[in-house]
Amino acid sequence: MEQKSMTALVSAFARAYHSTQKEIKIFNDYLAKEVLTLEEYDQIACHMSKGIDFFNPSFDGTEDKALQWVVDNQLSPSPLGRAAFSESMLKNAVKIGTEQYLIFAAGYDTFSHRQPDWATNIEIFEFDHPDMIADKQKRIHDLVEKRPANIHYVAVDFEEDYWQSCLLDCQAFDQNKISFCSLLGISYYLSKEKFSAIVQVLSRYVPKGSSVVFDYPDENTHTEKAGVRAKKQVAIAGAANEKMHSGYSYLEMEKLLADNSFFIYEHLTPDEITEHFFKKYNEAHPQHQMTAFDNVNYCLAVKR
Questions:
Q1: Which domain holds residue 27?
Q2: What single string gives the DSSP state of each residue in the chain?
Q3: Which of 56, 75, 94 finishes a domain?
Q4: 8 shares its domain with 94
Q5: What pLDDT was estimated at residue 238?
């Protein structure tokens, strides 16, 4: 597996494992396993189960139980929680007039191909690196017979300053239509300046009432105050050459958004995320409960 897509592959694996192995689901991405090859799925599963000593040195059990522990404690909480949060916020936004859904760093997100009835009249734009888009299109082509007409792929590189021209060059994008912009999984890997620049561009090109949804690491992520899982996640990302850069306080994030005409409409801390989205699962699995990821908050902001 190429390092450039390791994070996206592992995220897809986590969603796939949960949707196929759990009866009560925090988030049901029933297409995730289909996106991965059997070899990729088995390779990630093997790698993670054999890494149990890194994740939980005191663990004692079978390889299957080791894999379950790693997935439930380290891999799944973020992909499942943030997807559940984002898609619930998107559903509400569509009810009150959102017409465009912009997914930045879409990776192997499958929403476009499992659209619920309430989403079929919106235009969906998937933004990602050209190599990732080409790879995903090949996988999806093998998975579905016909691509929905409301999907638009836009190749961008967020590290380059010209990426916004790619958005404007997409003829289907309408600057006058209220948009819902997903920035999930992005803030970790960009400098604060780069992340702020993305929010600034969106503020410039989407109208009042549009929203952005994202997860972000708090100010303790890169300090000794960080949770054990957060420290391990930073180490894993660094080993995969996908270094995590930033951490934000609530006030710092509030100011970043306000400077770009956005106000925080919904904000959840890890404990609140667990209560909102993991409660039913945990009630059904009292011996194997899952908690939202350490030092990660979810945010929905709306343009004034």
A1: 3-75
A2: --GGGHHHHHHHHHHHHHHHH-SS-SS--TTHHHHS-HHHHHHHHHHHHHTHHHH-TT--S-HHHHHHHHIIIIISHHHHHHHHHHHHHHHHHHHTT--EEEEET-TT--GGGS--GGGTTSEEEEEE-HHHHHHHHHHHHHH-SS--TTEEEEE--TTSTTHHHHHHH-TT--TTS-EEEE-TTTTTTS-HHHHHHHHHHHHHHS-TT-EEEEEEEBTTTTSTTS-HHHHHHHHHHHHTT------B-HHHHHHHHHTTTEEEEEEE-HHHHHHHHSHHHHHH-TTS---PPTTEEEEEEEE-
A3: 75
A4: no
A5: 65
Q: What pTM does this model have?
A: 0.92
Assess whether 252 and 114 both reside in one domain: yes
| Mean pLDDT confidence for 129-139 | 90
On whether both 117 and 263 belong to a single domain, the answer is yes
pLDDT tens digits for range 67-106: 999 999 999 999 999 999 999 999 999 999 999 999 999 9
- Give the total residue count for the chain: 304
Q: What is the CB neighbour count within 10 angstroms for residue 29?
A: 26
Domain count, the chain: 2
Residue type for 266, please? E
